[in-house]
Design brief:
Layout lengths: L1 E7 L2 H23 L2 E5 L6 H7 L9 E5 L1 E3 L9 H8 L11 E2 L8 H16 L11 E4 L24 E6 L2 E6 L1 H5 L3 E6 L5 H8 L16 E7 H4 L2
Parallel strand pairs: 1-10, 2-3, 2-6, 3-5, 6-9, 9-10
Antiparallel strand pairs: 4-8, 7-8
Length: 235
């Protein structure tokens, strides 16, 4: 496991830094294997990043966008991560539609949707059942309760280690989510954290020992960079 932590003075500096990191990951990936695969996060923190990415002159034909988790709602719903990312970024650039890989939310059963997205990932990356692909970059945040993606405290999703995608749950409402082992397989993982409401959870997540069932972000043990706005870092 490799873990890097950088504290930024405010939100503007946080977004500037993460934009730089994303662009560097893009360049490395294009040079290494001719494309860039990124899994995006929902929430308010990364929205300015997506808006900034929309202003970049990149070769969008080489960028493939996936989602780390999704509420089980239509993309037109205000709570949809897909809808937010499309509005802030993807609808504003000339990325081919086939390069956009949203999580399906149109199946009657969320478990079937999870299986469908897992099959799409396996097909895209040329993996067999049981093999885990390595995305170039996965963006994540944390909640006040220590969750990341849709891996919530005390839920069954935390125990899934043999699948790429599973069903998460919050307040008895289903979500679709990357599993912890899929996230950990990424070449780079980047957490964006801001706000004093996250301080308690952040301290518990970064502590040397702790309970990942209570603070699920502790499950993420790959090549992780933490980019933290100062008010989230200081008690």
């Amino acid at each position: 496991m490799q873990r890097n932590i950088e504290i930024l003075p405010d939100r503007s500096a946080l977004i500037t830094k993460v934009l730089s990191c994303v662009l560097e990951a893009y360049e490395r990936s294009i040079e290494a294997h001719g494309q860039f695969t990124i899994a995006v996060a929902g929430g308010g923190t990364p929205r300015p990043l997506y808006e900034a990415l929309a202003e970049q002159s990149l070769d969008w034909s080489k960028v493939h966008v996936f989602w780390g988790d999704e509420r089980y709602v239509p993309s037109t719903d205000p709570q949809s991560n897909e809808g937010m990312v499309r509005k802030a970024w993807l609808d504003r650039v000339s990325i081919p539609s086939e390069n956009i890989h949203p999580m399906p939310t149109n199946y009657p059963d969320p478990a079937t949707a999870a299986q469908s997205y897992e099959a799409e990932l396996q097909s895209f990356f040329g993996k067999e059942q049981g093999e885990f692909p390595s995305l170039d970059l996965i963006l994540l945040g944390i909640g006040d309760d220590g969750h990341t993606a849709s891996l919530f405290p005390g839920t069954d999703a935390l125990k899934v280690f043999d699948r790429l995608i599973t069903v998460g749950k919050k307040d008895d409402r289903p979500r679709i989510t990357f599993t912890a082992p899929l996230i950990n397989q990424a070449k780079e993982i980047m957490f964006l954290v801001e706000g004093s409401a996250k301080t308690k959870a952040l301290q518990a997540i970064l502590a040397e020992s702790g309970d990942s069932n209570i603070y699920p972000s502790r499950l993420i043990q790959g090549n992780v960079t933490w980019l933290i706005e100062r008010s989230a870092w200081e008690p």
